[in-house]
Amino acid sequence: MLFRLFVLLALCGAASACDAFPNNTQATFNWWQCYESSITYYKTTPEDASGKFEYPIVLSKPLIVEADVDNHGKTYSQLSLSIRLWEWNNVFGCGWNEINTFGLLSNLDACTHGVPCPIKPGRQTLKLTIDFSKFQAIIGLLKNNAPYQIQLTLADKQSSDKTCVIAQGRALTH
Ligand SMILES: *[C@@H]1O[C@H](CO)[C@@H](O)[C@H](O)[C@H]1NC(C)=O
């Protein structure tokens, strides 16, 4: 009995010591570039289909990510896109738990999954369309109005060039 009470108190303590929305994701969209690459990101902005800033992000509709980038590499016309997703665990400690997407979001053909190909050299604005509504099997399982972390990796099929960004934000899933 005493032990149970102790476990309960410990769990409550852990939950309250941990932010419901880490890194201020309640109000702000956080992002960063994973590593140096031939594409440099200056800014990324989540938008709805009409080009208006969207926050929280709505995953049940196509999401536009407007990215201010500089491509100091070549013209990329054959790219693969891989997406990893994490949900925030604030019950048992605080941390990001990767969501199993059953390989559905790995090695997608980027040019038919929302990336405007070809990506030419130079400073430019890219509008990436991420349409999770096509992956209802995954989105349907996600908690509504919760913090998520997403990693997007673009890989050139002809060379070993890769580029990656991570974003964290509050998302509505239905
Ligand atoms: C918060 O954001 C920074 C980058 O701004 C990142 O390095 C850090 O891992 C993030 N913390 C969590 C808990 O996600």
From TrEMBL:
Record protein name field: MD-2-related lipid-recognition domain-containing protein
Cited PROSITE patterns: PROKAR_LIPOPROTEIN (PS51257)
PANTHER family: ML DOMAIN-CONTAINING PROTEIN, PROTEIN CBG22129
Keyword terms: Signal
Residues in MD-2-related lipid-recognition domain copies: 105-165
Source lineage: Eukaryota, Metazoa, Ecdysozoa, Nematoda, Chromadorea
Signal peptide extent: 1-17
Origin species: Steinernema carpocapsae (Entomopathogenic nematode)
